[in-house]
Amino acid sequence: MRNLILIILTISYYSGHAQTQSDTNKGNSAGAKSKFNWITASDHVLDLGVEGGPSVIFLYGDKFFSQHEKPACGFSGAFFVQYNFPKVLSVRTNIAFERKGNMTSGILEATDQNGYNLGSYNYRINNNSDYLTLPILVRATFGDKIKLFINAGPYLGALLNDELVTRTNGEKYGLPAKVAKNVTNESNRLDIGLTTGIGLEVPIKKGFSLSFEARNNTGLYNTANQPLVYNGTRKNNSTNFLLGFSYALGKRST
Fold this sequence. Notes:
The protein is mainly beta. It has two domains: 1-38; 40-249, Beta Barrel (Porin), CATH 2.40.160. It has helices spanning 2-25, 63-68; strands at 44-60, 69-70, 72-84, 89-111, 117-142, 147-168, 178-182, 190-205, 208-219, 235-251. Strands 1-3-4-5-6-8-9-10 form an eight-stranded antiparallel beta barrel.
């Protein structure tokens, strides 16, 4: 993520430099509107909006996860508010409903009461952990019309519900197709971590903008309150792909 941010910032800088040089060669005067200014002043104080989209989620911290889990699909949806300083920097926060967790799958053997092998069946277990999350992000925005932004900061999460959902195709062996088990009491209710993100913002109408962001949330806190298979920890990781819609408030005087 850090290398990607550096690459994009480098491209943005040289694109702006090339555009300015081109305008100079054409005889445009200094400060002409056709020049690209990659560091611009914010013309409003607040942004309010909504954002949401799918996520790629997994758990880490215990050897069992690296051996058996697969990334799963989650989601995130939020209402946000952003305070803009006069240039470049903003402070952004939101209240989000987010699904975290992971998935494990494989093949098991079915046996009868005497231990004789009856055949095999597939299983899949989804750990669905639903959180309310509150990040506090510092955002840096660059560009004129289409804007590039990067942000980073801590987040705090509160667990609402934790559920294990097991699905199998072993009905012919007397196994249920789906079993859901609530394991909220086996989990810590708190999650703390670090959020980083990068994206683009595009104005669509005066005061309104659309944005797309790739955001990673790395959990730093052990969310398990019981021993795990290899006595490790259970920490969340989610990568959100967010489509946002915002409205600008508070025209800044020039």
